[in-house]
Amino acid sequence: MISVSESDTNSETINNIKMKKVFTLLMIMCVVGMIQAQDNDQMKTLFSRTNKNGHISHGGYGAFSVGYTQIDKQDAILIGGQFAWIANHSFALGLAGRGFFNSLDKNYNYDDPGAYSLAGGYGGLLLEPIIMPKFPVHISVPILLGVGGVAATHRDKWDNYQNNNNYYYDNDVFLVFEPGIDIEFNIVKFFRVALGGSYRLTNGVDLRYKYIDANNIEQQKVIAKDALDAFNLNLSLKFGWF
């Protein structure tokens, strides 16, 4: 006997709301970019030769980040890193990755085989326009395009871990698009602090967490397709040549 728990939320309405949020965020990015536009006779590009020797100015950085988000409507931690090449101080191109896990509630029931958590990660290409980079406080617009994986698991206490046959693991892969906007602070020449937010939009996940209840009957919980779609708050520490 299998009992399936389905969400009553209209998925089409939710997806429309989320797409509107992403569209609004992208419009804000465009407006910010237009603010710094100048009416010059000569077109300026990201890779124009601007330094004293007439060559492209090169730089790069590595960063560690920590953040807050929600996964499956539960509080979750984001931990990540990135490294990138910087052209002419104004555009970074690199790779970024994030790891996440939820079920941070201190009242989490470790003994209930039906209680599950989601953990995983994602990463990929990082595109990051940097607006007015030489100002002590400025804006960057990081955009991550990539792929990730997530697993639905039962969480045992670390000091009492055991291979319990009363639950089963499920996992899935997903595509991710994560645009964001950061406020950056130039602390010293080689160190910046960035505070910002982003929105993680995926193509959806297909996860079913199965377990054996107290009556020795197999049950399963269907996890929402959009369980990973959410806003993020991030703090990043950046070290490099900017």
Order of helices and strands: EHEEEEEEEEEEEE
How many alpha or pi helices? 1
Going by CATH, the architecture would be Beta Barrel
The overall strand count is 13
Output the structural class. mainly beta
- For the termini, the CA-CA separation is 61 Å
Give the radius of gyration: 22 Å
- Estimate the strand proportion: over 45%
Low-confidence stretches: 1-9, 34-43, 157-163
Summed up, the domain count is 1
Fraction of residues in H or I helices: 10-25%
- Which sheet architecture does the biggest sheet show? 9 strands, antiparallel
What would the CATH topology be? Porin
Question: What is the residue-mean pLDDT, rounded to a whole number?
Answer: 81
Write down the overall geometry. elongated
User: CATH class, anyone?
Assistant: Mainly Beta
Task: Describe this entry's structure for a reader.
- With 242 residues, the protein is mostly beta strands.
- The protein has one domain: Porin.
- It is 10% helix and 53% strand.
- The chain contains one helix and 13 strands.
- Strands 2, 3, 4, 5, 6, 7, 9, 10 and 13 form a nine-stranded antiparallel beta sheet that branches.
- The longest helix is centred in the N-terminal third of the chain and has 25 residues, at 11-35.
- 27% of the residues are buried.
